[in-house]
Amino acid sequence: MLLSKKWLNQYIDVSDLSGEALGDLITKNGIEVESVTNRGEGLSGIVVGRVLSCEKHPEADKLNVTKVDIGECDPVQIVCGAPNVREGQHVIVAKVGARLPGLKIKKAKLRGVESQGMICSLEELGFEKKQIREDEQDGIHTFRESVQVGADVLDLLDLNDEIIELGLTPNRSDCLSLYGIIHEVAAILERPYTLPTADVTSSSPSKVSIELATPNCSYYAAREVKGVTIAESPQWLKNILIAEGVRPINNIVDVTNYVMLEIGQPLHAFDAKKLGNSIVVRQAENGEEMVTLDDVTRTLDSSMMVITDGQTPVAIAGVMGGANTEVDLSTTDIILESAYFDPASVRKTSRTLGLRSDSSARFEKGVDPERVMLALDRAAQLIVELGGGAIHDAVRSGEAESRAREIQVSIDYINKRLGMTLDRQTIVHILERLGLATEGDDVLTVHVPSRRPDLELPADITEEVARLYGYDSLPSTLPASQSKGYLPAINVLRRQTRRLLQGVGLSQAITYSLTSEAHATRFGGETDQLVRLAMPMSEERSVLRTSLVPGLLEAARYNTARQQSNVALYETGRVYTEHGETLPREKERVAGVVTGLWMDHRSQGTRIPVDYFVAKGIVDTLVQTLRLDVTYEAVSMPDMHPGRTANILMDGEVIGYVGQVHPGTSKDVYGMKEVYVFEVDLLALRGDETLLYQDVPRYPSISRDLALVLSREIPAGTVEQTIRQAAGPLLIDLVLFDVYTGENVGADEKSIAFSLKFQDPSRTLQDEEVTAAYETIVEAVRAKHGAKLRV
Q: What is the arithmetic mean of pLDDT over 435-464?
């Protein structure tokens, strides 16, 4: 919302305050001021001139040599290139020594002819092109009404004004008009003020009839003004509209825009002869069309409200009028419309049509029903003053339901929430400054006027007291008691997981949650479980991911394509699947990808490539640090190597997988050779958060190696479980250190070797005890797995 300080000063005296000072006060009291602009900044030496003669330049077809009276002893000669300069015009002249934005005017010679100044367009004075009359957008500005030669143009065009731009929040729709801002500024400054009024004299009854055939219009009023003359608006009106960012058009349209900015009620003027005497407000029919004032054909539907002449739509209610009843130079009779339209209906129509106007912006937030007639009468009065004519009686339909209400709030309630001890007199004084009449002693009854729809609760009244009292005046106090910070368990787990994976050498990656259907169906993703976007921007981002692995592989491919062949990345994030008729099901996972060399110490001659055991070791480090027990089980799954992939199980439940990406997938799809990945359900990694500490053992341990020959089909993990169950409490560590197939073992057999560590924390073990435990283990694996000792 733009606020002209000079316009505001007509209703409340703010002449002693600069725009910056006024803006600071408004901001301090709860409405943010985004900027303050001095319209005349950088301008000087600009006066009104009268063109005495205009002749073609002898050396240039597109230039004119003019003699201009600027109110001094002698006329000045100015060379002008504007196509619309003519003898007898009153124009804007920048004298020699004048300053324009970024320019100082000097004497000059153009094609050998001396020029003593410059005839200016409004654009050269800093006006936006959209604010300039169409016939002057490519030429100079000419004054159409009587002006004094030599007069200061800054005063004439009100350029000695400051524009305050308010950044209004959606709840402060009352300040979308000068009417509301006057109340606000008066409350801040505690100064007397006046408000716009209307004094209308009707000449005769109106023949116009109004029918409301939709519940979305609760009140509609109209007035006829007959015998008007369409003309250009006076300079004062154009100045205000331009300052507020609105382009002047003609006296009728300009008045409706002026009253909308002044009172906050949008209006519309119809050509009475084109409209007729019947006005029907109804919902549009599906497929119904009309041409709006911007010359665009709009296709309507039944959710949109229209104003009709009984049959044909002549306006989209609350949004824009129709071209078929537009006021033009031939108009002599007009019908003014002022109404209350349902905010939700206008908002939906505006969004559906992609058509937003100053009117719809106000109707969407809800106008004040009590100002419907005030705006109508104010506009009719101004139209007669500027364009002549006779006003007919107003015609109305429906009821203007006031939004005035009462709110009960206690003094104690206000003080407790502000942490203050304000007395009743102070609180009541603040509320009355805001125009909120108040009754009662300990419990106040606050009468909220219809213009303040944002005040609904006792908390709203408390906020009004706080902002007018001054936020900087609220006392600063420390909390009476200190509260202990709390981090949810899932956040603790996320942090632990990230620290652990970064500690083993992986770097964090963040990939898109949106992907293509081809990537989403890899690594176990099912087509019928995909969550698809209704309106995707591209096929590459059309579905939600079902796994973190494809995104990590894309990141790894990006790096390897740029000669970064050793890649180790991880990500924690959510994946999504359809879940019946409910919302998509979300799961949080942690995944990683490794490729290239895991260790590359050239000075030591150590070059260890990534393999399955590197990927599995990362998972082992993660789960062991979190004090969890998992097992691995060989598995075949889509896009993974059939002999180098295993499910990760916890308590018999699959919580993830680890393995090599199938060579075909890694090479053909992602352009890499040998890649290993893992993906685990993050929530499954929640372990026992209780930390257990034990003393460093004071007694020595005893180690034994166990080499077994058994069938290749038996997983080493299963054998490890058997060993732990049979060994008893003396076995404190068990490590698989060798797997062998080849000579000296059968074609369908393998040799696996474990290192066993025995220890008792309270005493020194005897060899006999360790031997007995060792033999128990050998007997258990022989009985359960058919294993035999390898010698």
A: 94
